[in-house]
Amino acid sequence: MRLKTILAILKTPLWAIQLGTGAKSFxxxxxxxxxxxxxxxxxxxxxxxxxxxxWKRRARLAHMISEQxxxxxxxxxxxxxxxxxxxxxxxxxxxxILHQEAPAREMLxxxxxxRRIAMDKSFLDAVPGLRALTCSPRWxxxxxxxxxxxxxxxxxxxxxxxxxxxxxxxxxxALHSDTFHPTMKAWFFLNxxxxxxxxxxxxxxxxxxxxxxxxxxxxxxxxxxxxxxxLSARGSFRIENNExxxxxxxxAHRFAVPANTLVIVDTNGFHARAQSIQASKRIEIWAYSxxxxxxxxxxxxxxxxxxxxxxxxxxxxxxxxxLKRHLGQPWRDVGRKNALSD
Length: 342
What we know:
Number of helices: 12
Structural class: alpha+beta
Strand content: 15-25%
Shape: globular
Number of strands: 11
Distance between the termini: 55 Å
Order of helices and strands: HHHHEHEEHHHEEEHHEEEEHHE
């Protein structure tokens, strides 16, 4: 018996357990990537069950947001709110954030550099207005309803530096779904985002699990992993603009918005970073939340406890540094910087 076959047999129990988690890679899990099982409905079943449970959780969190916000999200898959803070309060908070130096990490993707600074305890202590913002009832309710869990997201100060010379295209400019189940990302823009400076784009209504979307998911699962690009094979399906109409969807909405705008989306819906026409710098508070999709309960998360939640990002970075030979570490330590640094 060949070594590859023996290893596959030994890994099968782990692959089976992962079916009940958020594991999504068709390349790394032979069961998830099995054409035979996906013809029998494995991928579609996971998608349908994850969506059904997520909307059940959202129903239990609906009291945390207004009817207007809930209607916009349920129909569109995003909530966009301009002038989220009073103008004077926003200006003071933005100035403190932009000039606050802290340990930073950067990742290069194509022609784009993404810089992240953790909103950890030291950063929150230095910029106290941040706690008031992320603990405000409307903010808390929205991030929890969209992610479908009563948990605290991971928070960063994020800078997107686009149009690096002599580099291939940014893979994030292709429309894609992050994974097979509902998840949440949020952007609170600290500077104006022009239409030619790589704005966030999102296909309205693409978070809804329609019959057309299910058929597309099944077709993609049957192509995986060999017939897909690298990121799609790892479970983040890419879609072409000319495919949207066949799913009953219109074109992507471009969030060319003024500073002080909050945008929260379900990243199971199709989204991308538009290609920047010129060198640009987009700065935002960025939040991210993804939990195991098959959990029926909405809370009981020890990592959301105050005193623990704000320490998660530095801990994640440290763990990836120590295990980078096994897990990889795309986020390079670039020392202390602020959001404005070139």
